[in-house]
Amino acid sequence: MTTKLFGEPVRRREDARLVSGEGRFLDDLGQQALAAAFVRSPHAHARITSIDVDAALEVAGLVAIYTWEDLPAGVAEPLPLLIPHPALTHGRTAYPLARDIVRHVGEPIVMVVARDRYLAEDICSLIEIGYEYFKPVVGLEEAVSSTHLVHQDVPGNVGAHLVQEVPSAGGQSAAEAIAAAPHTLAFRLDIERSACMPLEGKGVYARWDADDESLRVYSSTQTSTSVRMAIAAKLGLPLPKVEVIAPDVGGGFGVKIVHPWPEEVLVPWAARLLNQEIKWTEDRREHFISSAHERAQIQHVQVGFDDAGRVLGLSVEILHDHGAYTPYGIIVPIITSTQLLGPYRIGAYRVEFSSIYTNTVQVTPYRGAGRPQGVFCMERTMDKIAQKLGLDRADVRAANFIQPDQFPYDQGLIFQDGRPLIYDSGDYPESLRKLKDLIGWDEFPALRESARAEGRRLGIGLGCYVEGTGVGPYEGGHIQITSDGRVHVSTGLTSQGQGHETVFAQIAATELGVPIERVSVVTGDTRRFGYAVGTFASRAAVMSGNAIALACRKVREKALRVAADALEADPRDLEITDGVVHVVGSPAASIPLATVAVLSNPLRYAFDEEAKRATQFATTGSMDRPPVAEGEEPGLEGKGYYSPIRSTFASGMHAAIVETDPETAEIRILRYAVVHDCGKMINPMLVEGQIHGGVAQGVGGALYEKMVYDEHGQLLNASFMDFLMPYATEIPHIETDHLETPSPLNPLGIKGAGEAGVIPVSAVIAAAIEDAEGFPIDRMPISPSDLYDLRLRSPR
Amino acid sequence: MHDITLYVNGIPREVSVPARRLLSDCLRHDLGLTGTHVGCEHGVCGACTVLLDGEPVRSCLTFAVTVAGREITTVEGLATDGRPSPVQRAFAECHGLQCGFCTPGFLCTTTAFLRENPAPTEEEVLEGISGNLCRCTGYQNIIKSVHRAAELLAEEPT
């Protein structure tokens, strides 16, 4: 490897088109397509008694109106439950268009196809739907105690119930360990709903080719390969006749991994039926009320600990709100309950969750996917232990850390991928040391005192997390070197702004020894790579990065073999530098990769200069052997798959200093520090970018963002005007430091980084506010009015 | 339908639009300039920001017919003779974008902002971009990009 690009802050190759307005996002495509729009339920729980389209039929420009009754067998079925689990005893999914009953505001009922979107929406407004109203179930505790049911056949509104228990080394249960502990605490924590809110909503554009009987679909998705399989199955088409492409995607953060969305089935179905191109672009209100939310949980915690603050027993009961449907199974509460343990080695652990139906938008993973809630629970617990014992909060954490010599460390639980929760590597004491240095933990008391002298109120908090990343089962990569010396890389998973084109090109250029300018990367296009899982769970760099490296190694080996023949050298003496294969120490004996690519294909019409040049190396070959030897293939290309034994565990620690206004209760983050360990970094600039973005979403979730439902199940703040996402003025400068403990599980030694930034933020901010104010902060997000109310109720 | 002429990126463009056609839709779907993006349709996110006679406006809150005869600059018009503008170069250099969906709005906003204030302070930069939402970057590198753009603009021959 002579062209060293792995680990360098290489500038992004995506940016040239994105800063010039030449990106191609979903709604930039299909300018001639018909437009689809949807009539969505304005009621949270109702029976549809009538649908009257008479007035709508008068509108010029109308092409078609569809209700559930119009759908053929495959399309009319409920959408798939993607990830079943034995504990999910009452999983329910929606119909693509509502059949009889609607269960949340925003559920699609009628699909309209018209000449353009303005007309389609005019037509939607003329369709009259009659309803018989039911009492909606809103709020977790109401859902659990309610006699009203979201689904008539789901008693108690409980979709899933799961208990996991890990006894102590001495065989004690959590209950026994807590009962026997010198100190105990019991408390309740609340986390509200938020959502991914990518700046680009979802969208689908479908083209049916009647001559070829094939379908091409563009979707703003995090998994084009699985959308393809879903469409082929639902429409009864042969898989090779369906191609799905994720174009430039304007952010995902989890919501676009759910598939197929109703529109991903309906738009292609109608495009084929009408033999017309159709496009649907989600608007912002649709995204609020018809896609997905996350986070809402209530946690009841009991903990027993010793004089040093070491946790002897921990018992957590979680109520998880999964909204009206469970298309993504119970991944979120499973992750909360398993990743809750963080970097700690605790005595005995019991976790029990109930996943509950409510008449609200469904809940599926949002960046962090249940981890922010788990970390909130564990870190609030650590702070409360320190408070009870009068110990330093960092010291209590240090007393509970898994030590560097204890890896691999088995937490005794089953993780989201169904495999044992075994941490592969890490150095938590070193992370904490770096974090304390970075934020000035030991100097803070002096800072607080000097601020207090000025009448200012400061607090400091910290939070630690471990994040399982790079979940399987696999990803693949394909490399082709063509006779012009270009390197074409493809992988099936998709990109939503992470910079995959850049980092995968860095990996390929490094592995193959070629200039990065010659490498091009395609992601999320099933025409190029058909097998993939998708981009979620901080897995793209780990999974596709390693798959591409493995594919490159195969191609490199073949290139050296072919070049060795031509140069009459031993492949072991060959090296590739700047796209040229040469004998080590003898640069004159060389052959460009472009020429090797020609040589690797015995059919050599001289279409170009390279082919002509290759003839000088052509050997006659033995007449006793076929031109393509057994086990060989023509061309200089190769495929590699990476399938990990289990997830690799990144980690990090954050700290913040906040100031609260003694009068207005305004909360300001003065400093925010991050120490992050994602193993070897492919591109530190992009890792930092991921952290910044994650922290910003975390700050949104800690201080501003919540979904406000009223008792009728109406989402009261379904717009950017009312759902408060942070602007630049709300985000503090983020200070970062890194630690690199390589993963022993994969060839590149990398761990995922995509979600990390968001995970501990609510815990850190809560801790810092608590430190400033002197009373517990157990419910997030927290607004100035919330803090003001808490002050009134909490005598200082 | 109304026949209007818009001067988009220096070129007169004739277009026939209904009165309710938004400028954002007119640019994107009638004129094929899809670089201007629509993130919220109600003027909060700033992704649709274009320059109207040099001033940043929300094209999703503007009817195309109301700007007939006016000069409009979109992200496609920021480069000069195919060379990206200092603002565009600064965003690429400082990793000031990730998914790139909000970026055209930030680029237009920043272009107008630095024209008015070529050497802004940290506070002024925050204020200058505080009407645009980004969900990917956490803004830190956008702030850096704006400062860098100011440097690059200062180095440009006038």
UniProtKB/TrEMBL annotation, chain A:
Which keywords appear in this protein's UniProt record, sorted alphabetically? Molybdenum, Oxidoreductase
InterPro entries to which the protein is assigned, alphabetical: Ald_Oxase/Xan_DH_a/b (IPR000674), Ald_Oxase/Xan_DH_a/b_sf (IPR036856), Ald_Oxase/xanthine_DH-like (IPR016208), AldOxase/xan_DH_MoCoBD1 (IPR008274), AldOxase/xan_DH_MoCoBD2 (IPR046867), AldOxase/xan_DH_Mopterin-bd_sf (IPR037165)
Q: Where is the Aldehyde oxidase/xanthine dehydrogenase a/b hammerhead domain?
A: 20-135
Alphabetical list of Gene3D superfamilies matching this protein: Aldehyde oxidase/xanthine dehydrogenase, a/b hammerhead, Aldehyde oxidase/xanthine dehydrogenase, molybdopterin binding domain
The UniProt GO MF terms for this protein read: iron ion binding; oxidoreductase activity
Q: What is this protein called?
A: Dehydrogenase/oxidase
Write down the species: Acrocarpospora corrugata
TrEMBL record, chain B:
Q: Keywords in alphabetical order, please.
A: 2Fe-2S, Iron, Iron-sulfur, Metal-binding, Oxidoreductase
Family annotation (Gene3D superfamilies)? 3.10.20.30, [2Fe-2S]-binding domain
Report the InterPro entries cross-referenced here.
2Fe-2S-bd, 2Fe-2S-bd_dom_sf, 2Fe-2S_ferredoxin-like_sf, 2Fe-2S_ferredoxin-type, 2Fe2S_fd_BS, Beta-grasp_dom_sf, Diverse_Oxidoreductases
GO MF annotations in UniProt:
2 iron, 2 sulfur cluster binding; metal ion binding; oxidoreductase activity
2Fe-2S ferredoxin-type domain residues are 2-78
The UniProt entry, under PROSITE patterns, shows: 2FE2S_FER_1, 2FE2S_FER_2
The metabolic or biological pathway listed in the UniProt record of this protein is: Alkaloid degradation; nicotine degradation
Q: Iron-sulfur as a keyword?
A: yes
**What name goes with this protein?**
(2Fe-2S)-binding protein
